[in-house]
Amino acid sequence: MEDGRASYATWGQRVLATVLDGAVLSGVTWLALGPDAAPPTWWPGLPPSTAVDLPLAWTSSPWVWLLLAVYVLLQGLTGQTPGRRLVGIAVVDRVTGTPAGLLRTLVRPVVHLLDAILLVGYARPLWDGRRRTFADQVLGTLVVPAVPAGRGPLGGRAVTAVATVVCVLGLGASFTSSQAGGSAQTLRVACAPVDGAPVTPVGGLTWSGEITRDVTWGYERRLFWTRHERTDAGPLTVRWWPLAEAGTPQVTAAATLRAPGIADERQAEQVGDGAGEVAVELPVPADVEDGTVVVTSEVVEAGQVVAACSQVVDLDGSRDVPEDATRVP
């Protein structure tokens, strides 16, 4: 078959197909996981530029896994991915000219590690007589022209049209058209009084407690889609204030944060100046950002506890997109 083939796919065609397929993978990863995840790649040694220091792994999304499975099936059974279909090339067995099959398709990215050495293998089609990479030579495959776009039977044209739509959407979803910082949001919950806490404490003042957290949102738009992402979240702040306007004594407020899996409690205290409100800040451990924590706090005056509260705080609540953040200009 290889001797009877008049031509092979050009290096430019292979690069263009790679870019198109990479755009589809990148777009689906962004839609599924947002900008904090790097997309997968078929081509070792050619990682996406966004892969540096991103906290999320694409492996956490079933949608990305599904897309990869579809890619493997398409290339293994037809020799073409959406990008290759649009460009008009296919990966085939060098002897029979038929698709390379599922096994070689699965192994191909691993063998591409040879091509990734100084990227020589990826450039090899520029001078190799059959325009092969090292992976092609090892696996016995060739990349050849297939049915050009717009030709062939009606079914073939329909498949090409679908591949075109997929690639166009993938390109659109892989590039950011606009982004900006967004709205501020405050998570606010009452701190429930502890049973037995003083009702009319020393000085005749009743204290009220509240827990707040300031959150900042931003957005990123790609083609038709807009994703809102939490860009910053501050500490939990326990605020105490007396239910009176005059005669506020100097007090000390203390607070403790407990969370499952955290060996050490987070503790902090703040001395009030007698002017009214006193606030205590509790940093939130990064590894409990998606769970719940228990916050307890008390107000002490002259060595005596005059108010106390305890509250379970759902940190996922600070991930709810605020209404004003959805109004993207």
Question: What oligomeric state is this?
Answer: single chain
Average pLDDT across residues? 80
Shape: elongated
Distance between the termini: 57 Å
The main β sheet shows up as: 5 strands, antiparallel
What would you report as the Rg, rounded to the nearest angstrom?
Answer: 30 Å
| Number of β-strand runs | 14
> What fraction strand?
25-35%
- When the domains are counted, the total is 2
- Helices and strands, in N-to-C order? HEEHHEHHHEHEEEEEEEEEE
Helicity, as a percent range: 25-40%
Counted by DSSP, the helix tally is 7
Low-pLDDT sequence parts: 198-203, 324-329
Question: Helix- and strand-based class?
Answer: alpha+beta
Provide tags for this entry.
Immunoglobulin-like, alpha+beta, five-stranded antiparallel β-sheet, 329 residues, disordered C terminus, elongated, 28% helix
What features would you describe in this structure?
The chain folds into two domains: 11-173, no CATH class; 178-326, Sandwich (Immunoglobulin-like). Strand 7 (207-222) and strand 8 form a beta hairpin. Strands 5, 7, 8, 9 and 12 form a five-stranded antiparallel sheet that branches. The chain has a five-stranded antiparallel sheet with strand order 6-14-13-10-11, with no helix packed on it. It has helices at 11-33, 62-78, 82-87, 102-116, 120-123, 134-139, 154-173; strands at residues 37-38, 56-57, 89-93, 141-145, 178-190, 192-193, 207-222, 225-233, 236-242, 252-258, 266-271, 278-282, 292-301, 304-314. The relative contact order is 0.12. It has seven helices and 14 strands. The protein is an alpha+beta fold and 329 residues long. The model is unreliable at 198-203 and 324-329 (pLDDT under 50). It is elongated, with a radius of gyration of 30 Å. It starts with 10 loop residues before the first helix and ends in a 15-residue tail after the last strand.
